[in-house]
Amino acid sequence: MSASQSPAAAPVSRPPHPLLEFWYHFKQNKGSLLGLAVILAITVIAVFAEWLAPHDPNIQFREAILTPPVWADGGSWRFILGTDDIGRDMLSRLMYGARLSMMIGLIVVTLSLAVGLAFGMVAGFFGGMVDVLIMRVMDILLALPSMLLAVVVAAILGPGLVNAMLAVSVVVIPHYARLTRAAVLAEVNRDYVIASRVAGAGPLRLMLIVVLPNCVAPLIVQATLGFSTAILDAAALGFLGLGAQPPTPEWGTMLASSLQFLQRAPWVVTWPGVSILVTVLAFNLLGDGLRDALDPKLKR
Amino acid sequence: MLRFILTRVSLVIPTFLGITFLTFILIRLVPGDPIEVRVGERGISPERLAQFRHELGLDLPLWRQFLDYVWNILHGDFGVSLITHNPVLTEFITLFPATLELALTAMLFATVIGLPAGILAAVKRGSLFDHGVMGISLTGYSMPIFWWGLLLILFFSVALGWTPVSGRLDLLYYIEPQTGFMLIDTLMAGEYDAFRSALRHLILPTIVLGTVPLAVVARMTRSAMLEVLGEDYIRTAHAKGLSDTRVIGMHALRNALIPVVTVIGLQVGTLLGGAILTETIFSWPGIGKWLIESIGRRDYPALQGGVLLIATSVIAVNLLVDVMYGVLNPRIRHAR
């Protein structure tokens, strides 16, 4: 990140703290503030699902099968968003689903970021054959449509939530690797890197302590957008029957297992979709805002 | 020029070999070998098993198997489906036009709406229209398309009854495939009612598959236009007294189109990948649905061949875009 002058810095000699400056730029974008608020709300729901959910997500209220939401005819306050085809409370399932989705996002992003970062660092740092080899493999992964690759990996590993997360992680690794490599290449010949190399810093120190902190900005943006890809793709795999299996309250899986009630009880299909859309949209909004605030090139 | 094209083509060969290797290895990772899948749970005598393995070349070392695999592919042999016993290539070629037709109409949908929307948003930067377009396109970009498809079916097919729920054509009609494109085949057969039916079947899948590309095209067009509109030659064109339409349409758009064309080309992968979901929702008889069914039936040769063929088509399209890009923009051609 290069230091850029804040427009508000009038007579004060000291530049504002980087975080403050970041916040100044970030809050200009009302959309990303909204995204951040939604993400915080979903996180709270995900963490405290046990206390917030009105019912156990797996209890079947046999006397209340396919109850409509509270505002529709026949709805009741007992099941605010209605119940599904075997009488489970939609709201509770969605809340536990939020926990799953956030966990999927977190695990996928951590995993793919770690692997991609390592590949990109090594490729950018050592160059030569290592670079060519790693980037070729990444190109090959990128040549496959991501959904196709995820479907194939999930099919080979076998259906299940863990395998779906692995599949989605594999698919996004090349993005992080490429981004890291590009950032490393831009930094590696700067004076400060050469200086610490001359001072005797080993490759590991150079990579992790000297260069890495200066490459984080694009990675933070990509990781935020990675959350939305992870949630969306995992839900798609769940929908195709290759992800989390019923009765897991994963949003995509919930959608798939209540498909035949599409006409009779539209709400069982509506809510999981709305949840996916809102969550993914929030992360995309946040990512856009972060990009604007963190990328000096795009700053107004 | 020729040299540029040859360089690009030669760069693709390792990628292609890599994909081939990847599909080869992925299928080996499946627990159990093809024989066990074929035999099922009935069991088989060890002698027969050894014989089967020998027939399929599974007793050879891995590198020999891989070379044989590549050799067969170069001869157009992508294996045989375990279920239908048809060559995978034949099945692929039969189904591919359906996917291609859908992908092309989706791309058309995305471009026809996304391009003008992006241009207008850039020209009226900061206006309500701009914010609207950006908001809608971000929503489209975040859309779980499998759910979007269900909503559209619920609204247009079930509630309003305007469009059919699934398939490519009403069962009333039978059209002998000529090109495999239903819109063209029905016209060639002179069956205008069938054409209308095919068109009605296409509408919802097109919208669903085209939603994400539409969002991408609109956003890309807007940002490319914004960049170009800030250039000196645009100011010059305005200063010369040219009309706004002419400046935007002739001077700005032509330069903004280059990145947009690239993005449209790159969406082909997204379209073929998205076809998996869209075709599953609408029971569209194309490659995507076929792949998902192959997974369900554990038909691994079909899956392997299908993935390789899709990847090959994506690589081919990207290569084409790359070369076109060089043809359109000499700066790229001479850069390296």
The fold-level CATH name of chain A is MetI-like fold
Please estimate the helix content of chain A. 55-70%
What is the number of strand segments of chain A? 0
The shape of chain B, in one word, is globular
CATH superfamily of chain A: MetI-like
Q: Overall mean pLDDT score of chain B?
A: 84
Shape of chain A: elongated
What is the total tally of β strands of chain B?
A: 0
* Oligomerization state: heterodimer
Tally of helical runs of chain A: 12
Mean pLDDT of chain A: 85
Measured as a percent range, the helix fraction of chain B is over 70%
Structural class of chain B: mainly alpha
Number of helices of chain B: 14
Give a short summary of the structure:
The complex is a heterodimer of chains A (300) and B (336). Chain A is built from twelve helices and no strands. With 300 residues, chain A is mainly α.
Q: Layout of SSEs?
A:
The complex is a heterodimer of chains A (300) and B (336).
Chain A: H1 18-26, H2 30-47, H3 49-52, H4 90-126, H5 128-143, H6 146-157, H7 161-187, H8 191-198, H9 203-211, H10 216-239, H11 251-257, H12 267-294
Chain B: H1 2-28, H2 34-39, H3 46-55, H4 62-74, H5 88-123, H6 128-141, H7 145-159, H8 182-188, H9 192-229, H10 232-239, H11 244-282, H12 287-296, H13 300-328, H14 330-335
Helix pairs in contact in B: 1-13, 5-6, 5-9, 5-11, 6-9, 7-9, 7-11, 8-9, 9-11, 10-11, 11-12, 11-13, 12-13
Overview of this protein structure:
- The complex is a heterodimer of chains A (300) and B (336).
- Chain A is mainly alpha-helical and 300 residues long.
- Chain A is 66% helix and 0% strand.
- Chain A is built from twelve helices and no strands.
- The radius of gyration of chain A is 23 Å and the shape is elongated.
- Chain B is an all-alpha fold and 336 residues long.
- Helix content of chain B is 77%, strand content 0%.
- Chain B is built from 14 helices and no strands.
- In chain B, helix 6 packs across helix 9 and helix 12 runs antiparallel to helix 13.
- The model of chain B has no long low-confidence stretch (mean pLDDT 84).
- At the A-B interface, helix 5, helix 6, helix 10 and helix 12 of A face helix 1, helix 6, helix 7, helix 11 and helix 12 of B.
